[in-house]
# Entry
Amino acid sequence: MTTITTGLNMGGPIAPPGTPGTVDYSIAPEQVSLWQDAWRRFRRNKLSIAGMVVFLVVVVVAVISIFWTPYSIYAQGLGDVTDPLSLKHPFGLDSSGRDVLSYIMKGAQIVIEIGLLTAVITSVVGVTAGLLAGFFRGWVDTLISGITYIGYGIPALLIAFLILFVTNKPSILNVIIALSVTNWMDMARLTRGQTLALREREFVEAARATGTKDFTIMARHVLPNALGPIIVQATFLIPQAILFEAFLSFLGFGLPSPDPSWGAMVADGLNDRFLAYHTMIVPSLALLITLMAVNFIGDGLRDALDPRLKR
Amino acid sequence: MTRGTAIYAARRLVLVLGTAFLVSSVTFLVIHALPGTPFTCERNPAGCAHENLVYGLDDPLFIQYRTFMWNLVHGNLGYSYVNQGVQVTPLLLEEAKNSLILGVFALVVTIVVGLIIGVTAAVRQNSWADYALSTFVVVGYSVPSFVLATFLLILVGILLPTWGGSIGWGSAEQIPIPAIALGLPFAAIVARLVRASMLDVIRQDYVRTAWAKGLSSRVVIIRHALRNALIPVVTIGGPLVTGIITGSVVIETIFGIPGLGKEFVTSILIRDYGIVVGLYTFYAVLVGLANLAVDLIYPVLDPRISYA
# Structure
């Protein structure tokens, strides 16, 4: 008779360790997959969980704002900017007499769109370029690495402004394109490095020996093993994109005026600073809290997924 | 400087010039290929024709490009289209001086604050001081520079209403606030790196030996630990300098500092094509040279790195 003893099986009869015929699993480390292990470690990080909750709240607010905001963002003259914060207008009114809360809610939509879309587009482009460069090497690598090398010599700001200058029509799409064009290189470099190391591993050799096609090897064997650092990098792309959009809007290069960008709201608030402070403080805090939340998520993911930092 | 370093520097210099050439060509061609001219011709056709003649805008694009490149090689970045008669090169050099002053002070803030926070947090690892400083660091790299700048502006306005140190440029008291606004977010990044590498170094044998010899904690921390902990920090020197140059765009705009960053925003907003092209070229060279300088400092700080 074989009794399986585990550390968790506290209620049943436990054979003493070393009894012949028993497998004592309590001394063997529990088998967990990388992702289970990562999730377990991520969950332990209270700040990351808090960041996750805050980010989800921003997402929910963004979704709600599609259907409903307390006031229309186009409704002006609801009162005076110097009116105290009230139950009717918890975040007060701006200098055109618009409800700041409604504006912030609509702004969350832009923040989420820009953050997530940029992260996704940048990651897809960067990962593809990095995989191709690292896997095929040769002229493909020379070409892609050459582009990234030159790209690094040009500040992202210049490229982004040139794109916005040429398109001459600030829209969410143009901002996302400008951000993706300037950010894909980091992702490509990271993926290339991972791929270069992975393509020499035995399991890739085994796959190749069984006649697996190149693109299948890349998609099924290389990419999944490089996914950890890629996810971490992609997470940090979200705050970068949000920050850059706010930066562009603050300078007046972002979305045009009726579009409620938090960065543009801070700029307006700065102009109103002799009238009231809340029009500047509210969007500033919204930006700060959202960016901190995403950065905490990124930190937690890195600690959870980066094998170098394990335990 | 060894021979290897010299060759490395020369190769990098060629790359910097190549990048600058590429940037100026692309900017020039893109801007000149845009439909329409910089001058509105509807209201004043005669004046417009004159402007086009003066700036050579009637010439074929190739001729314009050739003239532009010829002037560029001679250090002449052309003329402003909006403020006529203003030469771009001396204008940018004058503005670069202001930006340099601001940038150097910002860098001092970054390094001093970053080092103090990083070392303190590492030496008192897991104490309340460490947690407080680490929280400050996350806030520091999450806060957009323009938010920090506006808060500082309001804070100064409330606390020191009579002090002229907030907006403007030209006197020494107007330097610290923009320098702090520009440098502080980067100080957070430096602090984070210093803390991590200090924690790494503090556990090394030679540091334990230094403690065992009975050296004072100041000597152990600063002379033995920090010196080696600084090496990984130098690797972000390039991005740091680029970041400060980029960051100055928003800080100079907010504080009204007549530097390159403010010019960058204004020239694009008023569509001064002449300055835009010149400024792009200037920035490409500046960032390239700054990065090269940082890379050449590495082997001085860490003899294990060499470009031979």
Notes: Residues 111 and 242 of chain A are 6 Å apart (CA to CA). Chain A has a mean pLDDT of 81. The interface with chain B takes residues 149-150, 153-158, 161-162, 165-166, 168, 239, 243, 246-247, 250-253, 263, 266-267, 269-270, 273, 277, 280, 284, 287-288, 291-292, 295-296, 299 of chain A (CB under 8 Å). The first strand of chain A starts at residue 4 and ends at 5.
